[in-house]
Specification:
The protein is α/β, with parallel strands linked by helices and 142 residues long. 41% of the residues lie in helices and 11% in strands. The protein contains five helices and three strands, in the order E-H-H-H-E-H-E-H. The longest helix is centred in the C-terminal third of the chain and has 19 residues, at 115-133. It is globular. The protein starts with 10 loop residues before the first strand and ends in a 9-residue tail after the last helix. 23% of the residues are buried. The mean pLDDT is 92. One of its GO terms (biological process) is proteolysis.
């Protein structure tokens, strides 16, 4: 939605990475052997060239381009995608007056594992999509 803003009617962000700097900073010490591979795949935030690429690829730095409604779901205890990332994205959207719904579950980590939370998430997501996709034509000619 940040890079092709006219392509979508709305979006769902379910524990999604929006800031690659924050994400790379959450790599735990026990993943140290994996860290080198992560730097090769994603980029090393401490290297100038990689830092530029990480900023270009992080949606939070392009939130000003998002124009369609967004539903964000986040676990407050997520060790991989820090809640601050979602907070940043939601704040940026609200500051610009773009519709954003935010669901935070205090007892969840990366993904909702509690059955009640999953059902609540799916009901909210279904309602969000039903609301924002109701005026979409069934078939689009290309």
């Amino acid at each position: 939605m940040a890079f092709t803003p006219d392509l979508y009617a709305c979006g769902i962000d379910y524990v999604g990475v929006s800031n690659l700097f924050s994400f790379m900073g959450t790599i735990p010490p026990y993943w140290e052997p994996f860290k080198v591979m992560m730097y090769e795949m994603v980029g090393n935030p401490e290297e100038a060239a990689d830092s530029i690429l990480l900023k270009e690829a992080s949606p939070v730095f392009h939130a000003d381009k998002i124009v369609k409604p967004l539903f964000v779901a986040q676990g407050a205890q997520d060790p991989r995608v820090n809640k601050d990332e979602s907070d940043q994205m939601v704040a940026a959207m609200k500051a610009r007056g773009v519709e954003v719904e935010y669901m935070v579950k205090d007892n969840e980590g990366h993904g909702f594992h509690n059955e009640e939370n999953r059902f609540e998430f799916y009901r909210a997501m279904d309602a969000f999509l039903a609301n924002h996709l109701k005026n979409i034509p069934e078939k689009v000619d290309m």
